[in-house]
Amino acid sequence: MGVKLLNKKELGLFERASLPDLIIDKIAELEKEIKLNEIREDVSPLFNTGDRKIRVSNLIKLLLILEKENKHNALTGRILVEVPDLLRILMLLKSLLDSNHATTEQLKQQKSLFPEINKKLQLIIQHLEQWDKYLKKKINLPLGNKHTKDTYHPAFPKTYKYKPSFLPDDYHSNWFFEIKVKELCPFLTTIQFHPFNDIQASFQVKRTTEELFKVNINVELRSNQLIEETDNIRAVRLHSPHDKKNYPGSYLIIKGGHHRIKEIFERYLKGEIDGNKKILVQTSQIKDFARIEDLQTNGKTLTQVLKKEIAKRDQIRLQIQRSK
């Protein structure tokens, strides 16, 4: 069966795919594309050279994307160790295929590379399948707010028994609540309007987990400037239609600490932090988000934007839950 050369538009679907697309279907599509371009071992190097050149070219492009994305994407997991080695073999095969007058020895060399290439492709496909299952298991949070029942929140009396012992019984306890590390997935249960900055993100990478979790409960709550300078993680909890109203909502609207949250979640994905570990965060207020430019486009109100975001995330959570 012949294959066609992948164009820039098709390759672009895998490159910098949005996180929901990557998790829900792009990994499976990438597996399918790699399988489609496996080198046929039953055809002599003397024949079907054009088809083989296309397959090799497609594989090189796909593997280069994999190699690049593994280094930069928050959800790509471990670098696939077979990729660099396989790329070297494919480059060698490409140079042999590009030779206008291949010698008998070069044709033998070509044929000897076919099974080695396919064997490594199979390993990479296995990695992708495991990676897909691993990520979906890690980020899966079933619809509803069952996971928030044991997280302290001053607005929900049923959670008072979980109040951290170091949090005073005075007014401070009304300005802090708990979240779990596994809730920090950027396209599921957290909604963020603040853009990420590579410089700030690189600073968080250098911090210890203890430093990332640190919270100052003595913040001066009457001063917006001092609140900003204290740099606590700040958020608001909201309910979805699937949540029980007598427990904290399953959605987090992030006001401060975006880069810390991103680094914490990445460490969770790598297995460095327990997903059920709790973080004490400072309470923000919904009105604090009303001035964000993103919420003023197309005349939409804050309530409309958040309702749409929650509905979209509910659908993604349901898809991931079903595909686990």
Structure description:
The chain folds into 2 domains: 8-139; 146-323, no CATH class. Helix content is 48%, strand content 8%. It has helices at 8-12, 19-36, 49-72, 82-98, 104-139, 198-205, 209-213, 224-230, 258-269, 302-323, and strands spanning 176-180, 190-192, 234-238, 251-256, 278-283. It is elongated, with a radius of gyration of 25 Å.
Question: Can you give me a brief rundown of this structure?
Answer:
The chain has helices at 8-12, 19-36, 49-72, 82-98, 104-139, 198-205, 209-213, 224-230, 258-269, 302-323; strands spanning 176-180, 190-192, 234-238, 251-256, 278-283. It has a five-stranded mixed beta sheet with strand order 1-5-3-4-2, covered by helices on one side. The protein folds into two domains: 8-139; 146-323, no CATH class.
Morphology call: elongated
- Domain count: 2
Number of helices: 10
Q: Helix amount, in percent?
A: 40-55%
Write down the Rg.
25 Å
Low-confidence stretches are: 72-79
Which sheet architecture does the biggest sheet show?
A: 5 strands, mixed
How would you write the strand order of the largest sheet?
1-5-3-4-2
Number of strands: 5
- Give helix and strand order, one letter per element, not per position: HHHHHEEHHHEEHEH
Quaternary structure classification: single chain
How far apart are the first and last residues' alpha carbons, in Å?
32 Å
Question: Roughly what is the average pLDDT, rounded to an integer?
Answer: 81
Amount of beta strand: 5-15%
**Class from helix and strand fractions:** alpha/beta
